[in-house]
Design a protein that fits this description.
Arc Repressor Mutant, subunit A; 3 strands; three-stranded antiparallel sheet
Length: 114
């Protein structure tokens, strides 16, 4: 990404990068600290080639970083702000679902009042 890209476009690209379930799961797992690829594979039910592809996307975007420890490749969040972003995403979803539940309860309560 170049500095000439408008901020809204850069944000859209960030969210596109995050827009894959395996990538989100990887980021959730990395919130607890660095993880080797073999550990990630144990917690995510995908083929190793698929995980490698998704890790490469996250690494190219600068969202995660990798290092080698012996024969293992270890990934970590590039910034703790990624964990905060995931937390805010969870809060937004909880709020949206809560509002939908309230609306559903209201609709069910007024079903006999037609």
């Amino acid at each position: 990404m170049t500095p000439n890209v408008p901020l809204y476009q850069a944000k859209a690209e960030l969210f596109r990068t995050l827009g894959h379930p395996v990538r989100i799961r990887v980021l959730e797992l990395l919130q607890d600290g660095p993880r080797a690829v073999r550990e990630l594979l144990g917690d995510i039910e995908v083929e190793s080639s698929s995980l490698s592809q998704q890790l490469a996307v996250l690494r190219r975007a600068g969202i995660v970083s990798s290092s080698r420890e012996g024969s293992a490749v270890v990934y970590t969040l590039a910034t703790p702000d990624v964990a905060q972003l995931l937390l805010y995403g969870r809060r937004i979803l909880a709020s949206m679902w809560s509002e939908q539940e309230d609306l559903l309860a209201e609709l069910r309560g007024s079903a006999g009042a037609v």
